[in-house]
Amino acid sequence: MPAIPANVRGAVITGWGTALPEKVLTNHDLEQMVDTSDEWITERTGIKQRHVGGSTVGLSVQSGRAALEMSGVDPASIDALVLSTTTPDRCVPASSAAVQHELGLRCGAFDVNAACSGFVYALVQAHGMIAMGAKKVLVIGTDTLARITDWTDRNTAILFADGSGAVVLEAVEGPGQLLSWDLDADGSAEKYLYSDIGSTIHMDGKEVFRRAVRIMVDSATKSMNHAGVTADDVALVVPHQANVRIIQSACDKLGIPMERASTVLHRTGNTSSASIPLALADALNNGRIQRGDLVLLVGFGAGMTAASAILRWGGGTDAAVLA
Ligand code: UT7
Fold it and tell me: Within the chain, how many helices (H) and strands (E) appear?
């Protein structure tokens, strides 16, 4: 991707929120459903439990409301809602329309589907709208994969789950947070991970694993190069939460120690569009990101897609939110 032109209107994240369904499914619960074990799932994926249940609209409203409350932004002043989801509640209309209504927004709303890379796609899209004049954009990543998971297939049942994460993005005076971004897709690889309409997820786990590491590293490297930064400059990487071994392998190749990666998958499983905002919110809530820190968001997913972005947390020194 080309570098971001100088002097475009920038933005910063001013609020975030998350939502997870109440129902928890542990690895021990899965032992009763498919031929697997807690030990195998923990060793091969890093996942111990996941949350399942709820709708894409319901979870999005919860996380979106929490993000709006934290930012203190009046819902009526939001200029656009971008909802990343690969599991909308209906084919038509977009789930974002119901979320817009329930949150009391008075703006355009649309869904983005780039599978597990979708939140970064949506965040980049939101920055683009701010560059074009919008002042406040709500970005939500939500997936309800439990509905399209075959709970008799141990290959996928151990991985997938439900959740939502949201951020409020506000335009600033001065330099914003986004230093660079990269969005990739390779449609020739769609056969490795897909779900037909009305069906469940089919996955060639080994092939997805192999490609995932490569495309995450490629995308992250492009974003770092565009931003003119190195792995040493990155304070925290917030990766897609699919398998801890994928994260470990990508971090090793990038030269980023695992201590500088945010992981929540041990308690959330793979929540697709929600995984990066859930891991970002977790890091923020635990004080792992300070103003000025460089944060690398990087995801991969069905498509196969990949996406990354480098954020300077809080924007430049003179970044002040526009009224
Ligand atoms: O958002 C993107 C979504 N998808 C992904 O990121 C998936 C990427 N792939 C993966 O995470 C991994 O490939 C899996 C977790 C799906 C599988 O792990 P693996 O280390 O690639 O296992 P494998 O398929 O190579 O299987 C190893 C062994 C086999 O037994 P044998 O042939 O060695 O005797 C499998 O039959 O483990 C067996 N196995 C299982 N055992 C217990 C496979 N799945 C399971 C299971 N429980 N769930």
Answer: 10, 14
Shared domain for 88 and 134, answered yes or no, is: yes
Residue ranges for the chain with pLDDT beneath 70: 1-2
Q: How far apart are CA 74 and CA 103, in angstroms?
A: 10
Q: Which residue in the list 116, 127, 226, 243 is annotated as catalytic?
A: 116
In whole angstroms, give the CA distance from residue 44 to residue 34.
16
Q: Which amino acid is at 191?
A: K
| Predicted pLDDT of residue 6 | 84
d(CA 220, CA 237) in angstroms, rounded, equals 10
Domain endpoint, select from 171, 204, 231: 171
C-beta of 158 in contact with ligand 1 (< 6 A) = yes
Which amino acid residue places its CA nearest to atom 7 of ligand 1? Answer: 205
C-beta of residue 88 within 8 angstroms of C-beta of residue 95? yes
pLDDT tens for residues 215-229? 999 999 999 999 999
Distance 248 CA to ligand 1 centre (A): 16
Domain final residue, candidates 171, 188, 213? 171
